[in-house]
Design goal:
By secondary structure, this protein is of the alpha/beta class. The protein contains 13 helices and 15 strands. The protein is globular.
Length: 352
C-alpha cells in the first residue's frame, strides 16, 4: 500500500473516516485546528456530517446523542477545550457510551500557550471529571502510530462501551510524516449495537442513562464499571528499546519525547554508556508489570516528560523504592533536546 505524506492532525482525521466514523462535533482551538478543518471538507465527501458547535461543552454533549444512537463519533480539542468536556466525559462513561476523544496537548495551566506539552497526563489518566470513572488512554509517538491508534480507539470504545482518549502534543499534530491506512471500514460493516436507541419496533425500549437514584442500583453500577476498567489491563501496550541486557540508566518517556530520547540513547551508547528506553503506549491502563520488569534491568531510572512530573508519579509507584528515580522535564512549550537528555544521563552515571 502506497504511503502518503500527511500532517499529523489531518492523518488523524482520515484515520477516523477509515475507521467507519462519519460524525464529528467540535470547536476550534490551536494546535488541533487542522483536524476539524480537514474533516469539514472530507466528511461531506463520504456522506458524513461535520458540525462546528457553539462551544466545546455543546460538542461533547452532541457526542452523547450520536453515540447513544449507535454511531461511531469523535471529537478533538486541545487542553483547555478538553477541560470543558470533562463533565460530558463523566456522563459518557457513566452511560457506557463509546466515543473517541483526541487531545492535542498545549501548555497550561489556564490558556497557557499553543506549543507542545504533556501536562494533561493527570487529566487523561486519573479522570478529569467527577465520579469513579476511567477512560482508556493511548499515546502515539509517530504520525503513523497516531493513525493506527486512532483506528484502534474506535474498536476499543465499542468493545468496552467506554470513551477512549488519544493524546498527542503539538509536535504530533503539526509534523508531517509518511503514513498508510492499513484498513478501511464502512459504517455498514460495523457490528450491530443491540443496546443503542435505534427504535424499539419488536423489542423493549433501550434506556441510556447515568442517573440512578436508588443508591443500591448506583453502587452496583459503579462496581460494574470498575470491573470493566480492570478488564482493560489486557489492552496494555508498551515499547521497550535496547533492553535486551542490563543498563546503567533506564529512561521512561512517552509520545514524541520518547523519540527525542532514542536519539540521545544512540549517542550515549556510541560513547559506551548503556541506556535503554521504556515507552508506555497505553497511559491508562499503565503498563505496570512491564515497566517493573524493565526496572529490574537498570541501575537507575530517569523519567522525562513535557510537564513538571505527572507520569513520574506512576513510575515511582511501580519502582517502589527499588532503584533511584530522577526526573527531567520541560514546560511552557519548551521541548527538551537530545543533548539535554545526554547531560541528565551523564550526571546519573557520574554519581555512580
Amino acid at each position: 500500500m502506497a504511503k502518503k505524506l500527511m500532517k499529523g492532525c489531518e492523518a488523524i482525521g482520515e484515520a477516523a473516516i477509515n475507521a467507519g466514523c462519519r460524525l464529528f462535533f467540535g470547536y476550534p482551538i490551536t494546535p488541533q485546528n487542522e483536524i476539524p478543518e480537514y474533516l469539514s471538507a472530507r466528511l461531506p465527501q463520504v456522506g458524513g456530517t461535520f458540525l462546528q458547535a457553539e462551544s466545546e461543552v455543546a460538542a461533547s454533549n452532541m457526542l452523547y446523542g450520536a453515540a447513544g444512537a449507535g454511531c461511531r463519533v469523535f471529537t478533538s480539542s486541545s487542553s483547555p477545550g478538553i477541560s470543558l468536556m470533562m463533565e460530558a466525559m463523566s456522563y459518557l462513561a457513566g452511560a457506557e457510551l463509546p466515543v473517541v476523544v483526541v487531545n492535542i496537548m498545549r501548555g497550561g495551566p489556564g490558556l497557557g500557550g499553543i506549543l507542545p506539552s504533556q501536562s494533561d497526563y493527570f487529566q487523561a489518566t486519573k479522570g478529569g471529571g467527577h465520579g469513579d470513572y476511567r477512560v482508556l488512554v493511548l499515546a502515539p509517538s509517530t504520525v503513523q502510530e497516531a493513525v493506527d491508534l486512532t483506528q484502534d480507539a474506535f474498536d476499543l470504545a465499542d468493545e468496552y462501551r467506554n470513551p477512549v482518549m488519544v493524546v498527542g502534543d503539538g509536535l504530533i499534530g503539526q509534523m508531517m510524516e509518511p503514513v498508510e491506512f492499513k484498513r478501511t471500514i464502512s459504517p455498514e460493516d460495523l457490528p450491530p449495537k443491540p443496546w443503542a436507541t435505534t427504535g424499539c419496533a419488536g423489542r423493549k425500549p433501550n434506556i441510556i442513562n447515568s442517573l440512578l437514584l436508588n443508591p443500591e442500583h448506583l453502587e452496583a453500577h459503579n462496581w460494574h464499571l470498575h470491573r470493566k476498567y480492570q478488564e482493560m489491563v489486557k489492552e496494555i501496550r508498551w515499547e521497550d528499546w535496547l533492553l535486551d541486557e542490563p543498563v546503567d540508566v533506564l529512561i521512561v518517556a512517552y509520545g514524541t519525547v520518547a523519540r527525542i530520547c532514542k536519539t540521545a540513547i544512540d549517542v550515549l551508547r556510541a560513547r559506551g554508556i548503556k541506556v535503554g528506553l521504556f515507552r508506555p503506549i497505553t497511559l491508562y491502563p499503565f503498563p505496570e508489570p512491564q515497566l517493573s520488569a524493565a526496572v529490574d534491568k537498570a541501575k537507575k531510572v530517569l523519567v522525562t516528560e513535557l510537564s513538571t512530573g505527572q507520569m513520574l508519579e506512576d513510575v515511582r509507584a511501580v519502582v517502589a523504592g527499588r532503584k533511584p528515580v530522577s526526573f527531567f522535564g520541560r514546560v511552557g512549550g519548551m521541548v527538551m533536546t537530545p543533548e539535554e537528555i545526554e547531560h541528565e544521563v551523564d550526571k546519573l552515571v557520574v554519581q555512580g
